[in-house]
Amino acid sequence: MEKGSFIERFKCLIIQPARFLYESRQRIIFLNEKRLSVGVSPITSSLERIKNSLFLADTFFGFEIPHPVPPLYQEIGPVMQESYPPLTPKLSSFLSLHQRIMYVSFGMQAFTTLENYAILLKSFLEVIDRNIIDGIVWSLSGLENFPTLSDDTQLETSEILNNRYTHIYVTTSSSLEELTPQVSILNHSNTKIFLTHGGVASCHESLYVGKPMLILPLASDQFSNAEKLEEQGVALKLDKMDLHVDDIVRKIEFLQLESRVKINLKRMQILTKINSKRKYRAADLIEFVMKASQLNPNNNDVKESVVDNRHMKEGKESSEKVSNETNSESIEPAIEDIYEWLLKEWITPDSRMGFIRGKYLDVYGVVLILLFSIIGSIIWTGWSVVSFIVNSIASLFEGKLKS
């Protein structure tokens, strides 16, 4: 929102959060009823449930707009697989026979209108006819949503769906077991552009292999992803409510030929690959939480371990008995001093100090009072001095006039 208008920034800061809270109200009420039924305390907001939880975010700097985050929010993305499914023989053959391919995929859960599908198909035929792109790989979640054209285009839709048109190859991903090998397609040297819905996983994969994106956001975070990547100079976005063939063709040509896009992509690819190694840090953090959760004052094994360590340091036999009084008076505080709660290392002190003390408002308040007092004293002193001088001069003139 750095370049947004006042209205856009107002919507982002006020309207959208208010709408989210309103829309989530019924869900929170429903979940609270379920919580009460099993003896769990209700919550007032979704954020309250995770306020002291370790939050692992599948994102990274460069992809997100820079902003301050609390210590419990740890960016560990992009989480990439160690290996990906290879190309099928038919896909490999198609990719090898075409030099400038655009890969098209809108995921398995997002759909647009039949009119938009028709506009997209016309755009594909247009870029092929102009020799901007010479091949299209289109991954569909099902053929039932594919349009049937009845205008002046020279190609029947059935020809495309049955892969009888040499420049367009259609694949279907009707289930998780039949997913199109997206990363392998994007990583192919002949793939030049990725037309996507802007899902975060698709964006990460495209950046990882260094391919520009034409994004048609359909729902959820896809709109913000499109804006962020367009701001980074590695993508252009389309409007699902206002699609035009000429606009799509122009943006495809720009992404393929513009040198600045290639430079920006190289930079983002470096960032993506470097940050992709942080998934191992995520595993370390999870392991720490799992092990640290066993260290609590009510765990008898922990108490016995602390007792044994103390006696070993004091040169006593490990079999020496320790009274319950010693346990309650010396062991419990020792454990609490070492480990007050599970995520102590990440929870900032201001969360325990309260809003006023945590934000140093009491200190700032005293400083302001002192400043106002000093300024007031200076003004009062100055006014007194000026008044004294004026009165003295006035008295002097009065004395001269009387004389």
Structure description:
The chain is of the alpha/beta class and 403 residues long. It has four domains: 1-49, no CATH class; 89-278, Glycogen Phosphorylase B (Rossmann fold, 3-Layer(aba) Sandwich), CATH 3.40.50.2000; 298-342, no CATH class; 349-403. It is 53% helix and 8% strand. It contains 16 helices and eight strands. The chain has helices at 6-37, 46-49, 89-97, 114-129, 157-161, 182-187, 200-209, 222-231, 245-257, 259-275, 279-292, 300-313, 324-338, 350-353, 355-358, 361-402, and strands spanning 55-57, 73-75, 101-105, 135-140, 168-172, 191-196, 213-215, 235-237. The strands form two sheets. The protein has a six-stranded parallel sheet, sandwiched between helices. The protein has a two-stranded parallel ribbon with strand order 1-2. α4 (114-129) packs across α9 (245-257), α7 (200-209) packs across α10 (259-275) and α12 packs across α13. The protein is elongated.
